[in-house]
């Protein structure tokens, strides 16, 4: 998964987070100060969805972190290989003589 795809998914999750935050506001209370049972169920569903979204975002962040680590390791490997090849080329250049 590339970085742009991960950022798009994270943006989508941010939209869901805002939507869920807006859904939970302004719930009417009964006259005794308690919420309706339907409101409690709705709130629990919203909280469950929010937890799932947080888990998904966490997974995206871990994936992105892993990709960055792999890219750094690959860069280091390529730099070492390039340094080794430069050293070999310098030795060959010293051995080459025009006759």
Describe this structure in words.
By secondary structure, this protein is mostly helical. The protein has helices spanning 3-23, 37-95. The protein is built from 2 helices and no strands. Helix 1 runs antiparallel to helix 2 (37-95). The protein has one domain.
* Share of helical residues: over 70%
Characterize the biggest β-sheet.
none
**Shape type:** rod-shaped
How many domains in all? Answer: 1
- Provide the β-strand percentage band: under 5%
Number of helices: 2
Got a strand count? 0
Spatial separation of the terminal alpha carbons: 55 Å
Note poorly predicted spans: none
* Rg calculated over all Cα atoms: 28 Å
- Structural class of the helix and strand makeup? mainly alpha
* N-to-C SSE string, H for helix and E for strand: HH
Any chance you could write out the topology, listing elements then pairs?
Blueprint: H1 3-23, H2 37-95
Helix pairs in contact: 1-2
Task: Briefly say what this structure is.
This protein is mainly alpha-helical and 99 residues long. The chain has helices at residues 3-23, 37-95.
List keywords for this structure.
99 residues, 2 helices
């Amino acid at each position: 998964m590339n970085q742009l795809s991960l950022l798009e998914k994270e943006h989508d999750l941010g939209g869901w987070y805002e939507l869920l935050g807006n859904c939970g506001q302004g719930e009417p209370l009964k006259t005794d100060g308690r919420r309706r049972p339907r409101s409690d169920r709705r709130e629990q569903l919203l909280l469950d969805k929010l937890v799932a979204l947080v888990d998904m975002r966490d997974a995206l962040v871990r994936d992105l972190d892993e990709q960055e680590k792999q890219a750094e390791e690959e860069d280091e490997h390529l730099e070492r290989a390039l340094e080794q090849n430069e050293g070999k080329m310098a030795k060959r250049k010293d051995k080459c003589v025009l006759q």
